[in-house]
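Pilot study result, target chain (451 residues):
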Amino acid sequence: MPNNHKINNQRWYKGFSHKGDPNKLIELISKKVNEHDLSNFIPLVRIEKKVKKYGNYYFFIAVDNSISGALPEDVKNYLMVLPCFKFPIPRSPSFTYEQIKSMVGAAHDVFDCNNPIPYNPIETIQDDDPFDIFSVNNQLNYQNNSQNYQQLLYWLSSVGYGTWELFKKTCFILGLDEPKRVLRKLKLLGHLETSSDGKKWSIAPTALVKIKSLEDISEYTLCGQQNKKLIRKLEILADIDTINQPNVPYCIRLKLINLTNIETVIYKIKNEINVSISNSYNIAQKLAEILPNLEQWKLSLKPLQGIVKSLYDWKYFQNGDFVECTLPEKTGMYQMWDRESKNAPRRTLFYEQDIDTWRQCDWYGLRFLALSYSQHDLIARYNPESLQLAIPHCQMWPELYERALVLASGLLPKYHKTEEQNLWLIYENISLDLAHQLTQKLMVNCQEEII
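Predicted structure:
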């Protein structure tokens, strides 16, 4: 078992030359670090900016060790055996952050999913077309083990509620990585709710949410508490489609065909199976209507009191990266670091200079606020023919607003890369009204793409 005890450690960087997919590189290093519990020694990875496709590039691992340039024995024995470390930068056993910060991009945590782990080069997306089927690659490579995630949902449904620690342990037992991401996705899909501080979770009540309504067919998606027995009963009453999604439970679609029988089936579902059923079309639209605009949402976030700036080290989010700063002055997103520990930030927060106020929410919500205050060009693309809405991955919406997009179809977004190597999130079954309402509330410039 590696020994992670640290004494008077300092942070330095070791550089390497590599050729290959940066995403796969980070995934490989993260897996090995977590497998051998090395995160106290190797907390993050930084990749050279503007990596060319299939080209060589430099990457740097951060090392927390008392002797600059000396790798801990556990790192040598368990991590350096990977082929990606075959070509260290010659004649340079160590670097400081100041020496490399001009050439590297965002830091990628190897143990905490609060940072944007997928590596994405800085994007220029104004002239991009996310709906061009000839320039779109397949969905990014994710482990496809929906059966394990379905088992997690059944377990959560059986237990009903619990703590964050219990959720993490259960994910570990089922072999599911990154429990924070798992939790967020379950919330987006309407299966789970959490307390305001994130320390407790509870399963949502069982519900069938209507996502499609045609002349002779109604289509619903199953949300919340569920088990195999419930699904078998639903299969007797209606046509069931099971849609496989990467790294989440199956999407259970229920179709009611033939208008004369729909009311009878709905009655049986409500009374014999005791399942709540929303028979009003576009529940996502109703959610969008009651959501606040961006400014109101920001004000609804509970302020954090008692933060003494001088007691911490700070990093400011700028151009897709966190850069060191003296004390927070400008409005924006910050990382707050304990001075005695350099492994991970204590908190990531949004600071509003005019009223000297700190606020906290989901990571993507903080980033979205920071982008809006930096006068970043927030954009989206809408295809009225396919009812798809595309959002740049680097501008992912706050969880509350993304949930409305996901509930419109019961499906998480697909990840698509264009020929320009820009990464987009594609949401399905988005009506024009829903797209306009949400983008207007978030002050996003939404353009219609006619194909």
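One observation from the pilot: The chain has 13 helices and 23 strands. A full batch analysis is planned for the follow-on phase.
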